[in-house]
Specification:
By secondary structure, the chain is α/β, with parallel strands linked by helices. The chain has a domain at 64-163 and 185-236: 3-Layer(aba) Sandwich (Rossmann fold). The protein is built from five helices and twelve strands. It has helices at residues 64-78, 94-101, 140-150, 187-195, 229-236, and strands at 12-13, 20-21, 23-27, 30-34, 41-42, 84-88, 105-109, 125-131, 151-161, 183-184, 199-200, 212-218. Strands 7-6-8-9-12-11 form a six-stranded mixed β-sheet, sandwiched between helices. The protein is globular, with a radius of gyration of 18 Å. The chain starts with 11 loop residues before the first strand and ends in a 10-residue tail after the last helix. Bound molecules: zinc ion (ZN). The site of zinc ion has 9 residues, from loops.
Length: 246
């Protein structure tokens, strides 16, 4: 539990669970609140002048080996060769181009791209790749509702971020308005955000990785998320011989 440093008049609404949250720390004149229910740490507004690196990507984000690993994880969880994949928060498009070069039909979406989520048809997408993006979203609930709308049943969101669990907020350099990080999630806030918007969290999540990986499957009453994707891939190999990744 993080100790509030302000009174109730400075509470703001948690973007993950809508609970009123007090200010717990100030970074570069930005008040960050911590939700008493889900522990999400957020600031309701970023002063644009302070942002120095938003949307320029991260040097580690576009390592080809990392992108290959991300694609494998998404497809393993999906349990089938993907049709359409969305690279959400694509920045300069490096990951989009990587996926396209490896035979995956991919659309990159960012703030200024011609295609936005609203342009995509219901149940038209197999996978959504979102690497170091969720911490930039002021309203992740609306985004996840759109993900739920556009994904096919069993579709997967592959997400990477760093979570606020057990962090010393004063020393945590990921909590910084200058890099556009407005909403720092916890495992609990992500679980709530996903489960309240039609997604199922994974059975476990690695905590020791540089970026913590979070897979989600869209829920459907009659067709649960694939539990054992490796077996499904094996059994579907004959039916779907087309190489999708190499
Ligand atoms: Zn919350």
């Amino acid at each position: 539990m993080t100790i509030p440093i302000s009174d109730d008049s400075e509470r703001a609404t948690c973007p993950a669970c809508k609970t009123a949250a007090p200010v717990v720390i100030v970074k570069k004149n930005h008040h960050y609140h911590a939700c008493p229910k889900c522990d999400c740490v957020f600031t309701p507004k970023l002063v644009s002048e302070i942002i120095v690196t938003e949307n320029n990507g991260h040097s580690g984000r576009h390592d080809q080996n990392q992108d290959a690993t991300r694609l494998k994880r998404l497809v393993d969880k999906l349990g089938r060769a993907p049709g359409l994949v969305i690279d959400f928060g694509c920045g300069q498009g490096e990951t989009t181009r990587f996926l396209q070069a490896h035979g995956v039909n991919t659309i990159g979406i960012d703030q200024n791209t011609p295609v936005q989520l609203k342009d995509l048809a219901d149940a038209s997408v197999d996978g959504i790749m979102m690497v170091e993006v969720i911490e930039h979203l002021f309203d992740p609930r609306t985004i996840f509702q759109e993900f739920n709308r556009i994904l096919k049943t069993g579709g997967v969101v592959y997400m990477e971020s760093s979570f606020a669990d057990k962090k010393n907020l004063a020393e945590w350099d990921y909590l910084d308005p200058a890099i556009g990080h407005c909403t720092l999630h916890t495992l609990k806030s992500m679980f709530m955000l996903a489960s309240e918007n039609g997604f199922m969290p994974p059975g476990s999540m690695p905590m020791s990785a540089v970026f913590q990986n979070w897979f989600r499957c869209k829920l459907h009453r009659s067709q649960p998320c694939p539990k054992r994707p490796s077996q499904r891939l094996k059994s579907s190999a004959k039916a779907s011989p087309t190489p999708w990744f190499h």
